[in-house]
Design brief:
Elements lengths: L1 H96 L2 H10 L3 H24 L10 H79 L1
Helix pairs in contact: 1-3, 1-4, 2-3
Protein name: Pinin/SDK/MemA protein domain-containing protein
Organism: Guillardia theta (Cryptophyte)
């Protein structure tokens, strides 16, 4: 009877120690699962922040490019207007070189709509000549400037436009480089996340194997004591 009691006590102690070890393993497993969940939540939040930053940088780059494009389009429109005015002034110079008596003689020889057309041409010639005279006058604010000065101003304007184009292309290149760097960092982070998830699955499988091994050892001890 004493031998049976000592065996029962031994079995009870083995059961208690095995139960305690199982409880510890279960507690470790639960702690590991909670830490994995916290880590996954943190990584998801960090990834969303990276996505928001990339979206913000891309929007800023698009706005900068659109603004530069609008400025360049406006400069092109201004240049087209300037070319048109220059063409009109050249045309007025050509009309100014034509002898006025020829127009008068032609208007005397023709009848009907032709004199009206020639009179309109004459009025336009006088109007353009007035514009040209005002532009050449020293009191004019904008272009009573010598032609060499005008050419210098046009050269400065063209150089400024070229610098703006170079600067806009440089900004676009830097923004594209930033976007490529951010995409590469995001891809590396995704790979790390996949590796960590694989490691967590591997550790979980390892814990399950340990539990099965402990369970087998426990059953083996029980069968050997019995």
């Amino acid at each position: 009877k004493g031998m049976l009691l000592s065996k029962e006590e031994l079995i009870q102690k083995v059961l208690e120690s095995t139960r305690a070890s199982f409880q510890k393993e279960i507690q470790k497993d639960e702690n590991l699962q909670r830490s994995n969940q916290k880590r996954d939540e943190f990584l998801r939040g960090f990834q969303s922040k990276i996505d928001a930053a990339i979206k913000k940088e891309r929007t800023k780059a698009e706005q900068t490019v659109n603004r530069k494009r609008a400025v360049l389009e406006q400069l092109l429109v201004d240049r087209a207007i300037q070319d048109q005015v220059s063409t009109m002034l050249d045309h007025s110079d050509h009309i100014d070189r034509c002898p006025s008596p020829v127009l008068k003689k032609t208007s005397q020889l023709t009848t009907g709509l032709v004199p009206k057309f020639l009179a309109a041409v004459e009025r336009k010639r006088l109007f353009l000549k007035g514009i040209q005279d005002r532009a050449r006058s020293p009191t004019c604010r904008t272009s009573g400037i010598p032609s060499t000065h005008l050419e210098r101003m046009n050269a400065v304007k063209e150089r400024r436009e070229r610098m703006e184009e170079i600067r806009s292309s440089e900004i676009r290149r830097k923004q594209e480089s930033k976007l490529r760097t951010a995409d590469e960092a995001l891809r590396k982070l995704a790979l790390k996340n996949e590796e960590r998830i694989k490691m967590s699955h591997f550790k979980e499988a390892e814990n399950q194997a340990k539990k099965a091994k402990l369970r087998f050892a426990y059953q083996h001890k029980l069968s050997s004591h019995i």
